[in-house]
Description:
With about 425 residues, the chain is an all-alpha fold. Helices cover about 75% and strands about 0% of the residues. The protein is built from 19 helices and no strands. It is globular. The two termini are about 15 Å apart.
Amino acid sequence: MRTYRELFRTPQFGPLFATSAVQVAASTTSGLALGTLVYAATDSPLLAALSMFGSSLAQMIGATLLMSAADRLPPRAAMTGLALVFGLATAVLAVPGLPLPVVFAIILTEGVVAAVGGGVRYGLLNEVLPKDGYLLGRSVLNMCSGLMQIGGFALGGFLVATLSARGTLLVAAALYLTGAAVARFGLVRREPRAAGRPSAAETWRVNALLWSSGPRRRVYLALWVPNGLIVGCESLFVPYAPEQAGLLFAFAALGMLIGDTVAGRFFARRWRGRLATPLQLLLAVPYLLFATRPALPLALALAMLASVGFSASLLFQERLMALVPDEFTGQALGLHSSGMLTMQGVAAALAGTVAQWTSPATAMTVMAAASIAVTLALTAAGRRDAGAVDEDGTGPDRCPDPHPARQVSRRSAPGSGSA
Length: 419
């Protein structure tokens, strides 16, 4: 699958695309409003960063306890229910006089629940598209995310200025409810990809299996750490330039859109492995220049250029899918999404702490330098271990299925949607 026409002709991709678009618009709009609200009340870069990205800190709790649900719940019901939960939580955040501990308790609860949402969404994407269509499909969802972030931050900035931050949160809640309606009436009912009931024990078992291979561990770390540190830089946009934060977020989203468009549509397969590391370095290098406090036009250009490097995650996700059996794809992608968002929350907290003691510009430079160091270390480790056979004797390409009989029964189950 190489063209957008083929992609959008694929049954069920359209409703999944629309559901994702509305939810990204809701999350970006609410994030900017909440960050503005908290910063105005506390004058704290750390708390402002945590209000926008703190839910990511709770993602790993969901990934550790709940992620088996990503393959064991009907996708349509799960996506509809999660959108309703987020809509209700966002509406509660708009209540005047809500104590700050309650605000952060809601944010963290959202993060726990969202961990399952990423696995459900991207597992369903892998289910509705043929194997050769995943990279293009994921790139289009990322492009959609970039466009919705641009629109969401622009809309959020406008609404905060005209309605107020709390009014903007209510608009975001309405967008979440719209996403729930699109999921319920646009997606068809599908059976879960895996048999059995969701449980913490099953989540731990499959996570341990996914983590048991050196190649998979390196792919996960490459997906989580370098770009998470750069999101730490972005979490400081509000304290760095309070009046222009919406513009900085929008230009960063535009850069991500450009990178995902080029990577998903034009990168030949033979170049994908070679370009992953240069793109991750591009993600960090422009932020080194923020130590000089560049003028706004240059700062916007640097943020946009850096975000082109986020497209490296597409290349690593394609590599991850080659290492994971079909019945684990929801949990594997959910673990990727949750780990990535958790690292973003950790990085936001770290960046905010450094900014408290130095300045937002200095903290952004520190986070960028750390991202470069991690990228180079992971690349060197991958080269040392290239071609190594895993301890389980299966080689680096796939993880073994501990229940082969159940694998066959799941793949042949009516309505499972397995390729």
